[in-house]
From TrEMBL:
The keyword Chaperone does not apply. Gene3D superfamilies: 1.20.1260.10, 2.20.28.10. Keywords: Electron transport, Transport. InterPro entries: Ferritin-like (IPR012347), Ferritin-like_diiron (IPR009040), Ferritin-like_SF (IPR009078), Rbr2/Nigerythrin (IPR052753), Rr_diiron-bd_dom (IPR003251), RUBY_RBDX (IPR048574). PANTHER family: RUBRERYTHRIN. The lineage of its organism: Archaea, Methanobacteriati, Methanobacteriota, Stenosarchaea group, Methanomicrobia. PROSITE patterns: FERRITIN_LIKE. Residues 1-127 form the Ferritin-like diiron domain. Transmembrane segments: none annotated. This is Rubrerythrin family protein.
């Protein structure tokens, strides 16, 4: 099944390029290169199109309940296995910047897994997830579906910085 492996490798590459080019667009815009920023945004969108098509032909888009189960599995792996290992290596190498970033992500992934579990329970019962405004911390990626606290419990960013997710 070499083609199946190729599909997944292409999906990973296209997904990474999508995010990388979106971030490069922000940097170009900051530096005053608005047309270069547009080019990077266009390339980012093109990579997203490729990734979406690859995910579909890989058969990885299931029912919402199955997608939530997959999300729970992935997020749980990240906060129980992947990020703890990464934090440990970063500490051993004295990379405080990486240690903090990995720790923030690890804690946010645990929140995501819990929210996916809540959503799965709701979907299994035939209803949507009960949520106020969904907000995200722009520093660590913590997600809030109820009124958020005054500051992010993971990274300490003030609630006024949280972004509303539509």
């Amino acid at each position: 099944m070499a083609t199946e492996q190729d599909i997944m490798e292409a999906f990973a590459g296209e997904s990474q390029a999508n995010r990388k080019y979106a971030i490069f667009a922000e940097k170009a815009q900051e530096e005053g290169f608005s047309n270069v920023a547009k080019l990077f945004r266009a390339a980012s969108k093109a990579e997203e199109i490729h990734a979406r098509r690859l995910l579909r032909i890989a058969g990885m888009i299931q029912s919402t309940a199955e997608n939530l189960k997959g999300g729970i599995e992935g997020e749980t792996h990240e906060f129980t296995t992947m990020y703890p290992d990464f934090v440990e290596r970063a500490q051993a190498e004295g990379r405080k910047d990486a240690e903090i970033t990995f720790t923030h992500a690890m804690k946010a992934e645990e929140v995501h897994a819990g929210l996916y579990k809540d959503a799965l329970e709701a979907v299994t019962n035939g209803s949507d997830l009960k949520a106020d405004d969904v907000k995200i911390c722009p520093v660590c990626g913590n997600v809030f579906i109820t009124t958020p606290p005054e500051k992010c419990p993971i990274c300490g960013v003030p609630a006024g910085s949280f972004q509303v997710v539509e």
